[in-house]
Write a structure and sequence with these properties.
By secondary structure, this protein is an alpha/beta fold. Helix content is 49%, strand content 14%.
Length: 318
């Protein structure tokens, strides 16, 4: 005669088993990360892949396009600035790339994103590597920022990711192949004084990208990789006037260095990339310490000492 254990005992046993499973996974992934600190990760071949980069008319977007050009990819460049696009295309072609396609697109406009995306699919084909890089910063404290600029920050830095995913993810799902790259910010992990709308938009971008990554895994689409990039502030002109409190611990990053690190993260299927490496520690301490102390520590280490000299004035990297 088979006796069923009491419900309380059964639930307790399930809890213990699930806890042991979680602890085992934590140990396994920790060991795996430790090993890969010393063993180079194999890089995948992206030759022939169609790479779409938003905000590729300047800054990090342009530099990533130049890096991808060396890898034999087909480039699709989006930006709101035609002159910037033309210059990026010229620089890419100097590297010998023949398949480069430029499209003027305002990523804050959903209808325009869908329209230009359809044009890309007709003229180039399905995008297999999508890099959401376009960004904007108002450079104003919350109470001084006009509603229109706050809305624009959310539309460009967050909502545009929804629309580009809607446009290009279906083909990746059908083929179970692709790579989604979210260029967010350390301001999407730790709040910064004077950047309320920017931080909110980057927190949103990180949360969205991470959720989509988990959704793809849950539905068995493990051929679609995701990379979320959270760099400290980069010397692209977007944050002119800012100075870091701790230049050795938290330096303002050089664009070329960041672009190379992003491309390496994509080629090795790295899920999260935080720059500089000290951001891993700071983000971890924020989450480990009690709420108030963690937030204050993040602000103390991560914020700028001369934030009042920063005047973003609705600067765009699109």
């Amino acid at each position: 005669m088979h006796l069923e254990p009491p419900p309380f005992l059964k639930s307790t046993m399930n809890f213990i088993l699930e806890t042991l499973k979680v602890l085992g996974l934590v140990l396994w992934y920790s060991l795996e990360s430790f090993v890969f600190c010393f063993i180079p990760t194999k890089k995948k071949n992206v030759a022939g892949e169609v790479v779409l980069i938003t905000g590729s008319g300047s800054g990090i977007g342009r530099l990533m396009a130049l890096e991808f050009a060396d890898l034999g990819t087909v480039l699709v460049l989006w930006d709101i600035n035609q002159e910037g696009l033309t210059e990026t295309a010229r620089l890419v072609k100097e590297k010998g790339v023949t398949r480069v396609h430029c499209y003027v697109c305002d990523c804050s406009d959903k209808a325009e994103v869908y329209s230009v995306a359809d044009q890309v699919k007709r003229e180039v084909g399905d995008v297999s590597i999508l890099v959401n890089n376009a960004g904007i910063v108002t450079g104003k404290k919350f109470m001084d920022a006009p509603d229109s600029l706050i809305e624009k920050s959310m539309e460009v830095n967050t909502m545009a990711h929804f629309w580009t995913y809607k446009a290009f993810l279906p083909a990746m799902i059908a083929n179970n192949h692709g790579h989604l790259v979210c260029i967010a910010s350390s301001a999407g992990l730790i709040g910064v004084n004077g950047l309320a709308d920017y931080c909110a938009s980057k927190f949103g971008a990180v949360g969205f990208a991470e959720s989509i990554s988990l959704e793809l895994i849950a539905t068995g689409k493990d051929g679609i990789k995701t990379t979320i990039v959270c760099p400290y502030f980069i010397n692209t002109g977007m944050f002119d006037g800012c100075q870091t409190k701790w230049p050795r611990l938290m330096p303002i990053l050089e664009p070329t260095y960041v672009a190379k690190k992003i491309i390496r993260a994509v080629l090795t299927d790295q899920v999260f990339l935080l720059l500089p490496r000290s951001m891993y520690l700071i983000a971890g301490l924020k989450n480990i310490l009690p709420t108030k102390q963690g937030v204050l520590l993040g602000q103390y280490l991560g914020a700028f000492s001369l934030m009042d000299t920063f005047r973003g004035h609705n600067k765009k990297v699109q």
